[in-house]
Amino acid sequence: MSIRKVVKYGEPSLREPSKDVHKVSQKIKVLVDDLLDTMYAQNGVGLAAPQIGENYRVFVIDVSTGDQPLNPMVFINPKIIKKSGACISHEGCLSFPEAFTDVKRYANVMVKAMDRNGRSFVLEATDGTLLARCIQHEFDHLDGILFIDHLINRFDAEEQLKKNNLPPIQVEKLLDEPDLEPEIEKLLEEKVKKEKEKEENKQ
Ligand code: ZN
Fold first, then answer.
1. Domains and CATH numbers, the chain
2. Ligand 1 centre from 38 Cα, in Å?
3. pLDDT in tens, 169-200
4. pLDDT tens track for 144-175
5. What is the pLDDT of residue 202?
6. Contacts for 89-94 with beta carbons within 8 Å, 24 or more apart?
7. Between 20 and 30 A from 203 (CA), which of 56, 92, 129, 156?
8. Is the pLDDT of residue 1 over 80?
9. Secondary structure of 171-189 in the HEC alphabet?
10. CA 23–ligand 1 middle distance (angstroms)
11. Does pTM surpass 0.90?
């Protein structure tokens, strides 16, 4: 078990698709343990294998908070088998130190994967919870997709990258998300309306 170096945005391996795990061998178990050690060392809530330079379809998540006991979750060869709804998610990534921006996500996902013992499980995460959003973020890493590809405000995302000395947005990677966009538009309108009401109440 060891803490590994996290690959930063700009490194080509973050954009490479990862390969399936054929057998949960000792090597894969070490990879899982290294992912967990590295994620905890960096105070992250999720980490995918390509982020430590290993292009295998493996990621780990722990969304426990404060004094809750640790709850490491391991996903090997994950498949998203159901997705619905939309939510606005304020995200960062260990490969993008200090940069955060709003992105489009599904509110509900169902994922099928294998755990560290090679046992298959199905997990549902709903209502745009941190877990639901985190599963999508980490899953994307396995296909070379990064959170900024789902950006909502390009100006804000550019600012965040620049401020933190990260390379600029790769415009050709921005995703077209017709199944999310109408609902995101509505959510943004509601957000603006609420902020306006708040302002008015202050006066
Ligand atoms: Zn990430």
1. 12-195 (3.90.45.10)
2. 13
3. 999 999 999 999 999 999 999 999 999 999 88
4. 999 999 999 999 999 999 999 999 999 999 99
5. 80
6. 89/128, 89/133, 89/137, 91/133, 91/137, 91/147, 92/147, 93/9, 93/137, 93/146, 93/147, 94/6, 94/39, 94/42, 94/44, 94/47, 94/51
7. 156
8. no
9. HHHCCCCCCCHHHHHHHHH
10. 25
11. yes
Alpha carbon of 162 to ligand 1 centroid (Å): 18
Task: Please tell me the predicted confidence (pLDDT) of residue 141.
Answer: 98
As a whole number, mean pLDDT of residues 60-89 equals 96
Place of tokens 């998300």: 177
Asked about 138 being catalytic, the answer comes back as: yes
Residues with CB under 5 A from ligand 1 (ion): 93
- Distance from Cα 79 to the centre of ligand 1, integer Å: 17
Q: How far apart are CA 134 and CA 163, in angstroms?
A: 24
The active-site residue out of 98, 138, 177, 183 is: 138
pLDDT band of residue 14 (cuts 50, 70, 90) is very high
